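Postdoc handover notes: sequence design on the structure in folder B. Input tokens:
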């Protein structure tokens, strides 16, 4: 592979808003410079490893991550709590605690049906499921071979992107989750999410009360 393509690969990953797959990079290069260019998916993987080695030696604050079988730039994990703070401020992208709970159950138990989910959660999950479907964090994958043939739900590539995972097997193991639950940064973020949820519920209640008052006037 010509050394010039190392910077091309770097620029394609940098310019991509979503994780870009190795094959997409190969196709982009061949589309511009011709199909006879000697470059393949293995070259992309090796180049990414070389770039990450260079970033590490320069003590850069970022590196290239492999997420959902694609490549994307991301900040180092030791900066996560700072970047995470900004993320929690973006309420449109933030998931409620109920949504996170539902996602976690589906992620670890998939494929699973709505009745199975509601048995675990103990509450109706119609609204949460519809919300997660709209965000494309879960999708429907056929029907179960049980009475009524209920729909089966699984997580999507967008779920992997949202949580910075390459494959579903990268989910933390139960023992790791116990350690995370004790982490002070996690507890603080959890507290903020719960407070935001409470504030949103109060805003909804106030809005409903105001609408009811307007109707009675």
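Designed sequence:
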């Amino acid at each position: 592979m010509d050394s010039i393509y190392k910077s091309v690969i770097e620029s394609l990953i940098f310019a991509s808003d979503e994780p870009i797959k190795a094959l997409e990079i190969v196709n982009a290069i061949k589309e511009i410079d011709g199909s006879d260019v000697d470059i393949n998916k293995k070259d992309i993987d090796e180049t990414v490893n070389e770039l990450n080695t260079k970033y590490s030696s320069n003590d850069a604050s970022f590196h290239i991550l492999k997420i959902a079988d694609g490549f994307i730039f991301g900040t180092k994990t030791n900066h996560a709590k700072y970047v995470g703070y900004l993320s929690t401020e973006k309420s449109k992208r933030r998931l409620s605690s109920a949504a996170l709970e539902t996602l976690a159950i589906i992620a670890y138990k998939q494929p699973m049906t709505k009745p199975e989910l509601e048995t675990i959660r103990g509450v109706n999950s119609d609204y949460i499921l519809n919300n997660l479907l709209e965000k494309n964090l879960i999708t429907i994958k056929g029907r179960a071979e049980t009475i009524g043939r209920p729909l089966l739900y699984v997580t999507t590539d967008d779920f992997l992107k949202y949580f910075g995972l390459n494959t579903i097997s990268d989910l933390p193991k139960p023992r790791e989750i116990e350690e995370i639950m004790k982490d002070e940064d996690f507890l603080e973020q959890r507290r903020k999410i719960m407070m935001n949820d409470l504030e949103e519920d109060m805003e909804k209640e106030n809005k409903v009360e105001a609408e009811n008052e307007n109707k009675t006037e």
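Context for whoever picks this up: The CA atoms of residues 62 and 77 lie 9 Å apart. Don't rerun without checking with the PI first.
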